[in-house]
Amino acid sequence: MKLLRELGDNLRSFVVTVGAVSLFFGRVLGQIPRAMLRPRFVIEQIFNAGALSLVIIMTCGLFVGMVLGLQGYDLLQRFGSEDALGTGAALALIKELGPVVTALLFAGRAGTALASEIGLMRATDQLAAMEMMAVDPIRRVVAPRFIGGVIAMPLLTVIFVSIGIFGVQLIGVQQLGVDAAAFWSQMRSSVGVDDVMEGVIKGCVFGVACSLVAVYEGYTAVPTAEGVGRATTRTVVTSAVLTLILDYMLTALML
What we know:
The chain is mainly α. The protein has one domain (41-254). It has nine helices and no strands. The mean pLDDT is 89.
């Protein structure tokens, strides 16, 4: 009986949270046109979410590509298909590893920064002061940060994939001796527009999801130091789980 009651309470809490996030998302979408009238704020947030994440994105992309080159070569040489390394690595990076790993890194770097920044504004009553002055904090604070995250995420995905393919080429061609002409020609002939669009769509969807989670957790954080810390933690955990769930759903849909 106690277990059923706890399950019912958890289910009710989940439904309430989903409804609150949906209403919050609707408010943010409604303020996007007005927020775009001040492009300086949006550009600043694109810089904060995107440019400041370049180092970790490029570093991780390089080493993911290098590991993929080693593992892919080890697998393909068992079947005498080393020349297909470029095709396999490119498809893996473009369709799966690029969008997913970038989203996880984005949530850990930019997402936590967004949540903690907005949460600190909540804790120091800056958002309440805006409301007292008839300034909508959704339009002034949340919407530009949401737009910045949504725009930065696909761009970071493209950079991650590009650096990852360079890492594969560095290991496969330069170190392991895969024929360079076969590496690039098979990649160009096998990777189509649909494959690239799948990666771009995933990057955009993950950008919306991770940015929404970050700004929502920060905006609804309990106005204490502990509350801001918990909101930051929930941002990383929720974004990671949501990214993997959405990845499966999108992959199943596109296949």
